[in-house]
Specification:
The structure holds two protein chains of two kinds.
Chain A lengths: L3 E4 L2 E4 L5 E7 L6 E7 L5 E8 L5 E2 L8 E7 L2 E6 L8 E8 L6 E3 L3 E5 L1
Parallel strand pairs in A: 2-11
Antiparallel strand pairs in A: 1-3, 3-8, 4-5, 4-9, 5-6, 7-8, 9-10, 9-11
Chain B lengths: L3 E4 L2 E5 L4 E7 L7 E6 L6 E6 L5 E4 L2 E6 L4 E6 L8 E7 L8 E2 L3 E6 L1
Parallel strand pairs in B: 2-11
Antiparallel strand pairs in B: 1-3, 3-8, 4-5, 4-9, 6-7, 7-8, 9-10, 9-11
Classes of the chains: A mainly beta, B mainly beta.
């Protein structure tokens, strides 16, 4: 089946530093990947749609300069949280479409804690 | 405006019972309705999905019932087990490969 690998699974960083999260499709090519943010006991909030070889499409209210997304290949998308602050602490999840009609496959998520 | 509304927020069911989670949508263009299961600290995993050309889909103990005229769909978990305790999300999209709209989630607790 389609597998999406996300790393790291958890990260603690100091306020003001940047953190990069990787999302890889292991056994399929993903021209489109999605990045979500999830607060405790809440639903998934779509942050941006990542398209291979082009600029990401951000949802309203998501800061493009703070959450940098790069989709340089058909199997890798990265999310960089720049100048992280405690309010950026959250669970970040990526997903990809394996093919038409297959729906999303989610990564295992990254727990970011900014101290 | 919330595109997909999900209820209940939480659900407690005895082992062996039936768990029922409901969702309603507004956009009649939606044509793909999946359900995801999420355990704490993990990403959601696809459980079962349905398209509006059928009224019901069953996979093992999990069944989706779909009512196109009412714009509602539901997840039924038969013979609920403690291992089913998780948060369940319904979703809807156009085509199944575009933006997904998620429900607010239902935390299911199956008592042994």
């Amino acid at each position: 089946g389609a597998v999406v690998s996300q790393h790291p699974s958890w990260v603690i960083c100091k306020s003001g530093t940047s953190v990069k999260i990787e999302c890889r499709s292991l056994d399929f090519q993903a021209t489109t990947m999605f990045w979500y943010r999830q607060f405790p006991k809440q639903s998934l909030m779509l942050m941006a749609t990542s398209n291979e070889g082009s600029k990401a499409t951000y949802e309203q209210g998501v800061e493009k300069d703070k959450f940098l997304i790069n989709h340089a290949s058909l199997t890798l998308s990265t999310l960089t949280v720049t100048s992280a602050h405690p309010e950026d602490s959250s669970f970040y999840i990526c997903s990809a479409i394996a093919g038409q009609g297959y729906g999303y496959t989610f990564g295992s998520g990254t727990r970011l804690t900014v101290v | 405006q919330q595109q997909v509304k999900q209820s209940p927020q939480s659900l407690i069911v005895q082992k062996g019972g039936i768990s029922i989670i409901n969702c309603a949508y507004e956009n009649t263009a939606f044509d793909y309705f999946p359900w995801y299961q999420q355990f704490p600290g993990k990403g959601p995993a696809l459980l079962i999905a349905i398209r509006p050309d059928v009224s019901e889909k069953k996979e093992g103990r999990f069944t989706i019932s779909f009512n196109k005229s009412a714009k509602q769909f539901s997840l039924h978990i038969m013979d609920s087990q403690p291992g089913d305790s998780a948060t369940y999300f319904c979703a809807a999209s156009i085509g199944g490969f575009n933006k997904f709209y998620f429900g607010s989630g239902t935390k299911l607790n199956v008592k042994p």
